[in-house]
UniProtKB/TrEMBL annotation:
UniProt name for this protein: Dipeptidyl aminopeptidase/acylaminoacyl peptidase
Lineage of the species this protein comes from: Bacteria, Pseudomonadati, Pseudomonadota, Betaproteobacteria, Chitinivorax
One GO BP annotation of this record: proteolysis
Keywords, in A-Z order: Aminopeptidase, Hydrolase, Protease, Serine protease, Signal
Transmembrane portions of the chain: none
Natural source organism: Chitinivorax tropicus
Record-linked Pfam families: PD40 (PF07676), Peptidase_S9 (PF00326)
Amino acid sequence: MKFAVRTIWPLLTSLLANPLLADGYTGLGADSVAKETIEQFRPKPLDANLSRRIQNMLDISSPGAGMLTSDGKRLYFSWRVTGVSQVWRLDGPQHFPVQMTGGEDATQLVGITADDRFLIISRDRKGEENPGLYLQPADGGPLMEIQHKPGVQTQFQFASKDGRFIYYRSNDQRTDSYAIYRYSIASGEKEQILNEPGLWLIADHQSDGRMLLEKSLSNVITEYFEYQPQTKQLLPLFGQGEKAEFAARYGGKAGELIVLTSKFGDFRRLYRWKAGQFTPLSPEIKWDISHFSLDKARQHLTYTTNEGGYTRLTALDASTFTPLKLPVFKDVDHVTAGSHSVDGRYSVLTVEKATMPKVSYVYEWKTGKLTQWQQPMTPEVETRHFANASLESYPARDGTPIPMFVRRPAQCKPGPCPVVVYFHGGPEGQTTAGFSTYAQLFVDAGFIFAAPNVRGSDGYGKSWLAMDDGPKRLNVITDIEDAARYIRANWGKDGKAPKIGIMGGSYGGYATLIGMTLFAGAYDAGVSSVGISNLMTFLQNTASYRRQLRIAEYGNPDTDKDALVQLSPINHVEKLKAPLMIVQGVSDPRVPVGEAVQMYEAAKKRNVPAELILLSDEGHGVQKRENRVAVMGHTLRFMETYLKPAN
């Protein structure tokens, strides 16, 4: 039976009359929590043996796909082998990597100028998600700041084909909108191109100054416009008032766009758009096209199909749309296309599977030559023995099959294997097959690692994706409890049911808190990372540039207050009875640190075993190696303590 609103009205009336911590905290970031609190809940030291296990896993490292120079002789890429993401260079296939950037701040390669003179670098501090934008000479050297302002996002959009300008977007005029700027590399001067209210990004551009602009209305809904440089006006193209999902790029012919949309069916499909008409390019199948790209020369169009969590790659001629030959990779989970050389001669391809980290190749289209450029590192670990991700399912209470990837240890002794159920973020995310040191860490410790894609997840069509929008979440939130019900009834051994833990980050952290409170008794322990505890206080305090996107997903506090109150874990904390650990980055601009503190305080009042970890130098997720070791280690320790029988 569905979890209908009418069945919970008496409880709603009580909660609205006296909502727990309704006013809650105010603000986000380090200024919203006392320094003494941050210090009190910093991570405790780990047992040396446990720390060593985590360190061994984190030593397994695979570089990012990277970007080629126009002559195909150098590959630049981001890599976190030093403990935090930095930029590296290869001067030939499998040459010794040269480190280009350093320091403690997460740094990403976001572009290369068309003349190959400069790298375009994005750098964030403490996970605040307020990155700055920089230039670096292609041979190395100090970074040259384009813009990096406290509390402001500065994000690369594109570099002009003549190598003179960098275009970027920034919310330095309004915190809830992005203006578009042009920066001159020679003079250092910047010019504002667009300052209309809205969450704008440049999807593509033409050499005559026209730009294809995307305006986001939610994490899914978009509108498209063309910026006309002569009149400085925006020409509406499609999406206006449609509440549909679009992603578009300029095509290989004048007046033509390549568009990915689910407007005309349940699944995302690739179309050619011209003069207002959409013509299908990809076949009609019951899988989503997840991504597409064109090289700057508009010669090659590549797209990937998400086949239930496995990624398949297709290539077309960008002018005629006839199929192009690609290398054949056997027995892999994912094949994707990364960046392309400026002239369209080369493309970066990546492959991955559960027993092999991501590997990057450079593919030459004309000759069909495939060259491996990078080598993943797996010191002291034989990844061929990693558990494969088996695609399974469990029935929701209304009979709907919920897909779930499961990784199992070779054997469990004594009794049934304990289980950890991992819920992904988003909520529009998706757990897929592929390589995962995190999952393997639990498998090696004797746990079954199960990762459901509940209703509201991406990859299964727009109907599935929209099933949890706003108050509709009340009807499908029970997918979280049903996973535990199924596992407890079917994964036992010798008549004994397994112990089950729940964990996840972001929306997965919220799902964990719901599983531990609203569905108390379903899970025996939980670890929530950067999870929402109260949807009302979350929407009041999250960063303004995200608020409208999250209201579109979770509901409006003015019109959907009843549902938001019922769907807030903190309003069910009186049911909490199993051990709970909460992890939170203090600088998180998405889920404020107050969400973690108020949930921990409420849990402690229940006298249940509760732990709180606050990371002073992290945001929405964990970037630095020492913090990753601490979080992974304490999560594993917590689950082993409460899910495994005492020796």
